[in-house]
Structure prediction request, 117 residues.
Amino acid sequence: MLDSTLRRATDAVPGARGIFLMGTDGVPVAGAGGGGDLEMEVVTASYADLLRRIGEANREIRLDAPTELVVGCPGVKLVYRSVTPEYGLLAVLEPDGSVGRARYELLKASLALRPEL
Prediction:
Protein backbone atom coordinates (compact mmCIF):
# COMPACT_ATOMS: atom_id res chain seq x y z
CA MET A 1 0.00 0.00 0.00
CA LEU A 2 2.83 2.39 0.82
CA ASP A 3 4.47 2.25 -2.60
CA SER A 4 1.20 2.43 -4.51
CA THR A 5 -0.01 5.42 -2.45
CA LEU A 6 3.23 7.31 -3.08
CA ARG A 7 3.18 6.43 -6.77
CA ARG A 8 -0.46 7.57 -7.21
CA ALA A 9 0.28 10.87 -5.46
CA THR A 10 3.41 11.47 -7.54
CA ASP A 11 1.59 10.69 -10.78
CA ALA A 12 -1.26 13.04 -9.87
CA VAL A 13 0.92 16.11 -9.31
CA PRO A 14 1.98 18.01 -12.43
CA GLY A 15 5.71 18.68 -12.26
CA ALA A 16 6.41 16.23 -9.41
CA ARG A 17 9.89 14.73 -9.44
CA GLY A 18 9.02 12.48 -6.52
CA ILE A 19 7.25 12.08 -3.19
CA PHE A 20 9.02 10.59 -0.19
CA LEU A 21 7.95 9.28 3.18
CA MET A 22 10.49 10.39 5.77
CA GLY A 23 10.93 9.93 9.47
CA THR A 24 11.03 13.06 11.58
CA ASP A 25 14.60 11.95 12.35
CA GLY A 26 15.39 12.73 8.70
CA VAL A 27 15.69 9.16 7.43
CA PRO A 28 13.90 8.54 4.11
CA VAL A 29 11.65 5.48 4.47
CA ALA A 30 10.16 5.08 0.98
CA GLY A 31 9.67 7.06 -2.17
CA ALA A 32 8.21 7.22 -5.64
CA GLY A 33 10.03 9.02 -8.40
CA GLY A 34 13.31 10.75 -7.78
CA GLY A 35 14.71 13.96 -6.46
CA GLY A 36 16.40 14.89 -9.71
CA ASP A 37 19.86 16.18 -8.88
CA LEU A 38 19.05 16.31 -5.14
CA GLU A 39 20.40 13.69 -2.76
CA MET A 40 17.24 12.73 -0.89
CA GLU A 41 19.08 11.54 2.24
CA VAL A 42 20.60 15.01 2.59
CA VAL A 43 17.33 16.77 1.77
CA THR A 44 15.27 14.76 4.29
CA ALA A 45 17.89 15.18 7.03
CA SER A 46 18.07 18.92 6.41
CA TYR A 47 14.29 19.35 6.35
CA ALA A 48 13.87 17.27 9.50
CA ASP A 49 16.25 19.69 11.22
CA LEU A 50 14.36 22.67 9.78
CA LEU A 51 11.04 21.25 11.00
CA ARG A 52 12.49 20.74 14.50
CA ARG A 53 13.64 24.37 14.56
CA ILE A 54 10.25 25.61 13.36
CA GLY A 55 8.61 23.45 16.04
CA GLU A 56 10.83 25.04 18.70
CA ALA A 57 9.96 28.53 17.46
CA ASN A 58 6.26 27.62 17.47
CA ARG A 59 6.46 26.33 21.04
CA GLU A 60 8.05 29.61 22.14
CA ILE A 61 5.06 31.51 20.81
CA ARG A 62 2.57 28.86 21.98
CA LEU A 63 1.70 27.36 18.59
CA ASP A 64 1.43 23.70 17.69
CA ALA A 65 4.04 21.91 15.61
CA PRO A 66 3.81 22.65 11.88
CA THR A 67 1.76 20.24 9.80
CA GLU A 68 2.70 21.69 6.43
CA LEU A 69 5.62 23.58 4.92
CA VAL A 70 6.12 24.92 1.39
CA VAL A 71 9.52 26.15 0.20
CA GLY A 72 10.09 27.67 -3.21
CA CYS A 73 13.57 27.98 -4.70
CA PRO A 74 14.61 28.96 -8.23
CA GLY A 75 15.27 25.34 -9.28
CA VAL A 76 12.82 23.36 -7.15
CA LYS A 77 9.77 23.54 -4.90
CA LEU A 78 9.44 21.40 -1.77
CA VAL A 79 6.16 20.64 -0.03
CA TYR A 80 6.11 18.86 3.35
CA ARG A 81 3.04 17.35 5.03
CA SER A 82 3.00 15.71 8.45
CA VAL A 83 1.48 12.21 8.57
CA THR A 84 2.05 11.28 12.23
CA PRO A 85 4.34 12.74 14.90
CA GLU A 86 7.04 10.35 13.61
CA TYR A 87 6.54 10.55 9.82
CA GLY A 88 5.94 13.07 7.07
CA LEU A 89 5.70 13.28 3.29
CA LEU A 90 8.00 15.45 1.20
CA ALA A 91 7.18 16.30 -2.41
CA VAL A 92 9.94 17.50 -4.72
CA LEU A 93 8.56 19.56 -7.60
CA GLU A 94 9.95 21.17 -10.72
CA PRO A 95 9.99 24.99 -10.52
CA ASP A 96 6.67 25.12 -12.42
CA GLY A 97 5.14 22.20 -10.48
CA SER A 98 1.67 22.57 -8.99
CA VAL A 99 2.02 23.39 -5.29
CA GLY A 100 -1.74 23.41 -4.76
CA ARG A 101 -2.16 19.97 -6.28
CA ALA A 102 0.85 18.70 -4.29
CA ARG A 103 -0.71 19.96 -1.05
CA TYR A 104 -3.98 18.20 -1.91
CA GLU A 105 -2.34 14.91 -2.92
CA LEU A 106 -0.09 14.92 0.17
CA LEU A 107 -3.15 15.40 2.37
CA LYS A 108 -4.91 12.48 0.66
CA ALA A 109 -1.80 10.29 0.93
CA SER A 110 -1.27 11.19 4.59
CA LEU A 111 -4.85 10.17 5.42
CA ALA A 112 -4.38 6.87 3.56
CA LEU A 113 -1.02 6.10 5.18
CA ARG A 114 -1.78 7.17 8.75
CA PRO A 115 -3.48 3.88 9.75
CA GLU A 116 -0.49 1.92 8.38
CA LEU A 117 2.03 3.91 10.38
